[in-house]
Amino acid sequence: MRDQTERGRDSPQITPRMREHTCVLLVDDDQGLLRTLQILLEDEGSYRVFTAGSGEQALEILSREDRIEIVLTDISMPGISGPELCCEMEARHPRIVKVLMTAHRWTLSDRELRETGAKSCLAKPIDPTQLLELLETLCAQAR
Q1: Strands, E assignment, 40-131
Q2: β-pair partners for 99
Q3: Region 122-142: what's the mean pLDDT?
Q4: What would the pLDDT profile of 3-21 be if each residue is shown by its tens digit?
Q5: 41 Cβ partners below 8 Å, 6+ apart?
Q6: Angle at CA of residue 93, ends 113 and 135, nearest 5°
Q7: Rounded percentage of the chain residues whose pLDDT exceeds 70
Q8: Tell me, what's the pLDDT at 140?
Q9: Does residue 96 carry a pLDDT above 90?
Q10: What stretch of H or E contains 27?
Q11: Which of 16, 63, 101, 104 is the most buried (most CB within 10 A)?
Q12: Are 41 and 58 in contact (CB under 8 A)?
């Protein structure tokens, strides 16, 4: 029989990759971008990622998935736009942190951003470092 010290050496060490994951929902009608961002976040190791190709699909996922903490959504999509999705989430899921993404040169004003309930607006193409830093900041604020 092994003593406590030997058993302790065989115990797995808790690493950042093993901590509880933050659940993120990515919403964009660009499937390539969704897949790229999903791989980036999952490879980082701190995120469980859900994806939706439309605002309508995002609302469907949010209605059944209560673990989602952060939603990143494109501004311009067919059907429900990103700002409309954020406003709908603000009414139905106010605890979820919302971030908008846009490939357009314009961004929302601070007032427009506040009206949607979004915390930030990222410009596309998405800079991986900027995205990871933003998510880390948002997760730290939520704690």
Answers
A1: 47-52, 68-74, 97-102, 118-123
A2: 72, 120
A3: 91
A4: 443 334 443 333 343 346 8
A5: 24, 26, 47, 49, 132, 135
A6: 60
A7: 83
A8: 84
A9: yes
A10: strand 22-27
A11: 101
A12: no
How far apart, in Å, are the Cα atoms of 42 and each of 22, 65, 84, 91, 132?
10, 18, 27, 29, 11
Question: Phi/psi class of residue 111: alpha, beta or left (left: φ > 0; alpha: ψ in -120 to 50)?
Answer: alpha
Confidence of residue 141 (pLDDT cuts 50, 70, 90): confident
Q: What is the mean pLDDT of the chain?
A: 85
Nearest to 67 by CA among 30, 23, 124: 23
Are 31 and 77 in contact by the 8 Å Cβ rule? The answer is no
As a whole number of Å, the end-to-end CA separation of the chain is 42
Q: What number does CATH give the domain 20-137? A: 3.40.50.2300
Q: Is the pTM above the cut of 0.70?
A: yes
Buried b (16+ CB within 10 A) or exposed e, 5-34: eeeeeeeeeeeeeeeebbbbbbbbbeeebb
**Nearest CA to 54 among 82, 89, 32, 35?**
82
